[in-house]
Amino acid sequence: MAQSFVSRRTALGVLGAGSALAFVGCASNVGSVKPLPTDATASYRSDFSGEAKIDEYDTSAGEYRKATRTERAKNVPKPIKPKNADENSVAGLYSSIAFYTAATQYMMESGDDSLIEQTALNDTDKSSVKSSSYQFSTIWFEDPKVTANLTTPKPKESGGEYTWPSRFTIGLGSFIATSGRDADVPSSSRSTTLDVDITGKYENGHWVIGGFAAAFRSQVGSGSSSSSGSSI
Fold this sequence. Notes:
- This protein has 5 helices and 11 strands.
- The protein is of the alpha+beta class and about 230 residues long.
- It has helices at about 10, 90-110, 125-130, 135-140, 210-220; strands at about 50, 55-60, 80, 140, 145-150, 155-160, 160-170, 175-180, 180-185, 190-205, 205-210.
């Protein structure tokens, strides 16, 4: 295969960072997000800060086996979109963010980008992610991890659009491999974190999220091309 570099730009390609716009807003009638009840129950939370996670995965493929230098991971648990992800509520926005990160990690680990279409990522960034996802069908990493740690209990609202500050991290593990070839990933390149103001807007019965490409451009930009990394 052509030479591939494990750099911040390569890793953050999963954010749709090559898109022309970070977030596409569509003119529509948008209602307010439903407030959470005062007495939180098991179904509702008053504080959503911390790592955004989903609860359900499809493990019917069989026993999960981690990647090695000669084989990519096998039977990777497949994220299941939360039932409340399209709900017009803070919980719905949280679940949409969590499912996006889980689907991105699944793409990196399995090489299958089919779940990206089910995520709430805006159309421009979604197309950009899918256009570059072919790389994950031919290369793999030891232990890819994608997380979004929400830094406030709830998002801020302005004019029907929501902003949720987060720390978005992509980890790769200690090696990168492809058929018949592998290379160590330098410790300095194994993980990268961005401050991302995740944007959310509820329209046409579902959430639309973004902000990832904007964070990439402002915090990484064209300078990442000179980052050190391994090649195979």
